[in-house]
Fold this sequence. Notes:
There is one protein chain. Helices cover about 10% and strands about 25% of the residues. It is of the alpha+beta class. The chain has 2 domains: about 1-65, no CATH class; about 95-320, no CATH class. Strands 4, 7, 8, 9, 10, 13, 14 and 15 form an 8-stranded antiparallel β-sheet that branches. It has a 5-stranded antiparallel β-sheet with strand order 3-5-6-12-11. A two-stranded antiparallel ribbon has the order 1-2. The radius of gyration is 31 Å and the shape is globular.
Amino acid sequence: MKKNNSIIAFSLILIFVMLACNMPGVTINLGPDSVPATVPVAATDLPVISASATPAEAATATESLSPTPELPTPTPAISHSLIPSTIVKPGNLILDVVSVDTAAEKRAPYGDSYQINRFERPFTQDMTYVADLDIVSFNLAYDEKFFYVSFELVGTDPNNDLGINYGVELDKNADGFGDMIIIAHPPYNVEWSTDNVQIFEDTNRDTGGLSAEKAEAPLPGDGYDTLIFDGGRGADDDDPDLAWVRVNAGNKATVQIAFKKSWIGTKFMYGVITDGGLMSIADLDYVDRFTEEEAGSPVRGEKNYPLKALYGVDNVCREVFGFTGTKQEPQRCTPLRQP
Length: 339
């Protein structure tokens, strides 16, 4: 029995010598009659294998020399059954104020009406103009399966280093409170993709503050509070084809967002927003979270000029689809409100 133990111990020591053959600095003594040998080891703590160690103990010690690396979890591929059309004829254009002509003067010409939730702030906080934030027009088109909301921008690079979000706000009952927002995040592609598209819902009706349109800050609220679509990969994403984004699809569609008709229905109000500043949908509507003094103003001559807490954002009045209404709906585009 002692002889067997000696053989086992000797075998384990030989294994250790073989493992350490490429490491500097460890002296191995094989017994009283042997010549000590120095084998290289790495500059880390190595496990000590006793001559009396059992095979299991030796195996555990040697395994620690080469731990198995953890492989990254692969991102599952999304299988799409319905993709938006690549050819979309623009709908009726709704125009917005642009600041490109007064950009060198570090100001917006007009169009920033804080008290009715209308922003013309395509500037950084130091009043540097960002053309890829500045909305020229927006329009809605549709086919048998999808609605298409297009942004026409002054700039041509939605993948601006600023990291701009583009969103479509939807009001299903025309009360001025946003019910859902489809928000797209960079990076963007010229091909249709769901990867960076999310949809959030306002479940407690606080996006519009108290009056749906007027600035009433400071009010508490969590804006669009519930994620209901996360690029088709979310745990609750029943339909991976629900919402899409692509860029540079035409001169009237610098950014284009598509969403399924079966999801939204046939009657709603819609508007668009570009956001490269706060990018906090939980704080929408911004006019109910920040006072006008806190937000600042892009209009030179206004007492709150220049921009302060609220910058890098442009939005529009909301247009209707599928109904006529009273033309007095909160935030609705009308001849008096539309430039």
